[in-house]
Every structure is written in structure tokens, then in C-alpha cells.
What we know:
The complex is a heterodimer of chains A (255) and B (233).
Chain A: H1 3-22, H2 26-47, H3 57-62, H4 64-67, H5 69-85, H6 89-95, H7 99-135, H8 147-171, H9 175-197, H10 199-202, H11 206-214, H12 227-250
Chain B: E1 3-12, E2 15-25, E3 30-34, H1 41-48, E4 56-61, H2 72-75, E5 76-79, H3 91-101, H4 107-115, H5 131-143, E6 149-153, H6 161-176, E7 180-185, H7 188-194, E8 197-202, E9 205-211, H8 219-230
Parallel strand pairs in B: 3-7, 3-8, 5-6, 6-7
Antiparallel strand pairs in B: 1-2, 1-4, 8-9
Amino acid sequence: MPAHHSEASVLPMIRSEFRKITTVRSPWLLLAAGPLIVVAGITGLVESGGNVHDPALQGQAYAHVGLAAICTLIFGILAVAGEYRHATITDTYLSCPRRRRVVTAKLAVYGLTGAAAGLVSSLVAIAVTAAWWSARGGAFHLSATGAWVTLAGGVAANLAFAAIGVGLGALIRNPVAAIASALAWIALVEGIAGQLVGAGLARWLPFYASEALDRASLRAATRLLPQWGGGLVLAGYAGVFAAAALISTLRRDVT
Amino acid sequence: MELEVRGLTKSFGQVTAVRDVSFTVRAGTVTGFLGPNGSGKTTTLRMVLGLVRPTAGQVLIGGVPYERLTRPRTCVGALLEATGFHPGRRARDHLRVLAAAGRIPDDRVEEVLSQVQLTRDAGRRVREFSLGMRQRLGIAAALLGDPQVLLLDEPANGLDPAGAAWLRGLLRAQAGEGRTVLVASHVLGEIAQTVDHVVIVSAGQLRFAGPLSEIGDTNAALESAFLSLTTTP
């Protein structure tokens, strides 16, 4: 089948996925939590004694955009697992029995929406940082050291974690189990695994990689990959999860 | 458009849910698909629709497997028991999601809403719907693509007597327009009044396929034939 045919056929599923997320409230509540994390995080940074005259502090404030990616991760998980929960997956596959297209459309729509959420979080981060700097008499610069690369990394992390979530939710189709596994990995497992394998290998793990991508300024940079390296490693994880989602989805019986 | 089931078998581990089932559903007829609970009806329908992969055999819809139909919703409309709705989505939006996926114009959403008499409630979220209203919404989804083949699993579930009569009229009208209609049910009374052909399965095997007149078209005759055909020897 010619390539242009398959591209043309994924577009209806992309439209359908956009309609799915725009016609219920839960994705918007979830994505709205991202900018709230940014506001709370930056406020905490300043209130806990951050020195607004330190030129590095602005980058640290912006690093909270990357932390907001936890929301796009859960958002992505619900793409497939949420459909299993409400048994709407049957109708989705009836509309499009070529399941590769369904997963492709979900990766595109959730990835784009995740990136858009990251952009909103970035704008909020700039606004809140500017407000605090002005309130505390600091010198706010739009192009402060590391500012733009940190924000760009944050947006990329929001996109990548949405895609990882889509894959994870396709593998673990129970949304509660999938979200619990993801949170346990972030809060517990990766930290322990990192200590077991040592810093040299730990920096290749997904959340260490995302730290390199979006909040290197919060850590001693020597322990992490360079920013571009973190981005590539995270993109690799997203690719692996997306491939696993495809393989496990194609042949599975929907009963 | 004819529906042809050929040598269909499905095993889940050690259990064989469907064993070498073959039958044909012809255009212009309403065919009843009968069998006790757990007889393999639902698994067979899911194999017809490409949701469950057969262990052996195949299903052809107008000569093509479901997975190869270019715009499946315009060929086959299906209502399955386990088909769900997002409780927070409005009925109209549910259909608009399906319309986008099936490349069906949005005008069609209003047409099917009016056909199943849900226009007035189309702006409500599905969590507020009664079982009968959900059933009507499911039927609307099946009709959305104006399909040549209708597959309905227990469509009368939750419908009141007036709704059941409406459904019978709808099925007869669809067959009258030359469409292919297959209705799975275990409610025999519904079936005798509506269908002209029957397919009977029990314990995953085909027991009968043919015109209802070969069995007898009274409720009592159908019931006794059904019981003798589906009682495992």
C-alpha cells in the first residue's frame, strides 16, 4: 500500500482523538495541574530564601516546567488505559481496525498536547518568575543564563513523557495500576536502582535523563548527561515505549 | 452485502469457546443468532468484527475481512454488549468522536440522534442516561455510517415495550432496504416476531442455520426447538 494512503488514513483518527480529549473534563484538569506545580514550585524557591540577585536562580525557577511533565505522563497513560476502563476501546477499533493507526494517532495527539501544556507551563514560569523578581528587587532578564535552554528542555520533557505515558498505558491497561507503577518508579525505584548501578550508569535512567534535559541547573551537572544527551536518551525511552505499545496492541484480543 | 462465517474456531488456552462454526447471513433478511449464555455468540461476533483473532477460520463481509474494509463504519454497524461510553461525555459528542474516526459528516450525527429519539437528550452527559437511553445511543452509533450490515448483540436490553416495538420496526425496515441484519439474543419472544432466519449455537458449536419456518414460527415451536437443539446430549 502506498505511503500516502496510510498517512491520509491516520488523519481521521487524529481528529477523533482531539474530539475525545476536548469533550471531557478530566484531561484539562490534569493538564491544568502542570502550571500550578510551576507556580507553587517557583514561589517555594523564592520564599525558602532563594537569592533573586543570583543569576543562576532564574534557570532553577524555570526548571519546574520539567517537573510539570508528571502531569503529561499521567495524561498519556489515560490515552489507552482510559479507553479500556470505559470500554470505549471497542468502538475505537471498530472505527479503525488497523490498530497501528490508532496508536500512531494517539502518540501524535497526546505528544502535541503534552508539548502545548509544556509551552503554557513555560509562559506561566516566565510570568511568575518576573513577578517575584520584581517584588524582591531582582534583575529579571528574559535571556538570563540557561533560561531558554531550560525552558526548551522542559517543553521537550512534557512531550516525551506524554508519549511514554501512551506506551505505558497500552502495556498496563488498568489506569490505576499504570499510574501507580509510574509514580512508584519516579518516587522510589529509579532512586534505588540508580544507587545500585552507580552514578555512571544511573544517568542513563529515564528520570536522570530528564533531569539533564530540563533541570540540570538544580544539580551538580557532572553527575548527569549533557542536555542534548538527556534529550536523546529520553527520546529513546519514548520510542521504546511506543514500539512496545504497538507490538502489544496489534494482536491482543479485545473481549 | 453478505456475511460469511467460515470454519470459525477460537480457543482461549485449554478452553475452546467456538468450534468450527460456519454460516451465511444474506442481504435483505433479519437473522436471529441464538444460543444460551456462554454458547460463543459474543466471541463469534467479536471475531466477525476483528476484535478477537480466530484460532482458525475466517469471516468475510462482502468478500472482505473486517480489518481490510476501507471505511468499516459505512459497511458494518455494530452494537456489542460491552461497548462503553465515557460517563462524562455528552451523547452528541460521543457520536461526533465516532463520526470523525469514520470520516462521516457531522450532519449524520443529528440524523441518527433523531432516528433513535435522543435529540432532546443529546446535550446530556452519558452518566445521566438510563440503560434504555444508553442502548439507543449504542444503536445510533451502529447506524451512524448508514451501513449495509448491522450486527446487534441483545439490542432490546433495557428498552421498554414501546422501545422494543420501535426496534422491531427498525430492523424490519433495514432488511426491507436490502441490508443484512444479524441480531444476537437469548430472548426468544423477541426473535420469533422479528426474524426470518435463525442461527443457533450451543457450547461453541453450530446446531442449526436456516429459515425460521423450518423450525416453526410460533413462540412455543421455537422454544421447544431451541431447547432440544441446545441441550447437550
